[in-house]
């Protein structure tokens, strides 16, 4: 199959070889590395991608969830071009920032006040620093398999490029381990960072008991519970915190928040975020040239106010969750070891005797299946991420979803024959 892929994509191979002259590996996003080479994308439209070799694909990469709106949402294009016509960078508070802040704070229960930055990574680093300042403590609890950004990665051991905080890494979905760490280290812990659905490790949903335990233990010990909802905030009208009714002290956001443009946000309880108020003596400083760039702000406002309204978010959760469950049934019929994990539009497929509950549960068979799925998809007109995550987007139609489902099920059948 790899030979077929290489033969069908000569232009991508050429362009990637040229790119390697200037960038190690040919691009600046490690996650886009693909063996033998990734496809070079020429354009996107709605839920479709067009590559330089002339192929059209349904886009399940969905820019790793930032592509919620697809590639050409008219309301976003209009808002951005209107904003651009009044200047690209303004270097002052502008007409957009507070409106976006209001939309965000009204949507997520934990966010009384918010600050913007440029990416999910930045949002998490800033939230971590905030927690250390506010609590006067140093340790930060994270979970094995978590991805909180390029410098906060905890899959398969610690990333040597991680910011050198005092990390404590625990197994995901293990309330007993969490209770124990608080008994032993409670007074040292500034914050617990958790993705309510463990994303990069294969979209594994946190159980209510696990997340509620984290809520109780952090509250008892005076440390902060931080939900990284960079991906999961798209689930329903108020993110996973809204679905479960568990309110963290702080929340971080990113991905689709800027309508597809670069943006991150961190926010939380007023007494925490007030520490950034420059009217107060000893306030925390957080600057950033592009924190309030008009392009991301205008796109974000258009997205949240006229496209991905709370109502639409609820409907999209229902529609995508029904797709996920249908896919699960279809794959179980192929073989009972297939599991379709995640929630709503954040989906992964696993092959294992029991459904995975943590990052360590990803099996060799799961990886093999996902490799096959990526290749079969690229050859068959559906782009999946190299590591097998599936992201649905708003412009996908029911018939698009049917095509995706059929391709996955036929690949599953083929996988068993290998
Ligand atoms: N947190 C989570 C849960 C993420 O999935 C990501 C990105 N994949 C990040 C943080 C980092 O966001 P960014 O890529 O915008 O820095």
Automatic annotation (TrEMBL):
Lineage: Bacteria, Pseudomonadati, Pseudomonadota, Alphaproteobacteria, Sneathiellales
Gene3D superfamilies: Aspartate Aminotransferase, domain 1, Type I PLP-dependent aspartate aminotransferase-like (Major domain)
Species whose genome carries this gene: Sneathiella litorea
Transmembrane domains' residue ranges: none
Name of the protein in its database record: Aminotransferase class III-fold pyridoxal phosphate-dependent enzyme
Family assignment from sequence similarity: Belongs to the class-III pyridoxal-phosphate-dependent aminotransferase family.
Keyword presence, Protein transport: no
Molecular-function GO terms, alphabetical: pyridoxal phosphate binding; transaminase activity
Cofactor(s) annotated in UniProt: pyridoxal 5'-phosphate
Pfam families: Aminotran_3 (PF00202)
